[in-house]
Amino acid sequence: MIRAITILLSILSCAAAQSTVTPPVGNFPALNVQVTVATQARPKKMPGPGILKTMTIIPKVTIEGVTRGTPIPTAESIMLTVTMDTGGRENVHSFEKLTIPAAQTGDRRQFTYAESGFNFNGYGGLTYKYYIFALRDPATKEIIYFKTNNAALLSLCEKHPEKRDQYLNLWRGAGVPSLK
User: Which domains, and CATH codes, for the chain?
Assistant: First the structure.
């Protein structure tokens, strides 16, 4: 019981949640979008000295219309999670596209991406760094909403919107380009 509460608190305390109201774009009404990436680290005793930790990354997005009576068209969402190895290199750990089905009303809907995980210990391994998320029109590929919890990347993409596609086109295992 205590372990379950500890795990729950770990998930809640590590969740990075940011909710934003998007302006209307094309056929899309104003939306309230909340991206959440929860991380959970579990220690595991290794034979001999040391502890191996397993980290699980659990990304989700919640979408609702600002006006509940307004229909929401089909959208495409992209979620990337980025990790850093002990050498300081950032790589795309997970990449997933989801189709967000059209809705007749703007009611709140939550979509969960595949969980991913990795191991690390005192000698090395991976560490979760940040996420990159986009919601876009599947017909035109126009970005309706772009969000990351990496302040430098967000600033770069606000100054140079064309850079968003460069980062959204990265695949699992790809190195993340410099933020210059």
Answer: 2-168 (2.60.40)
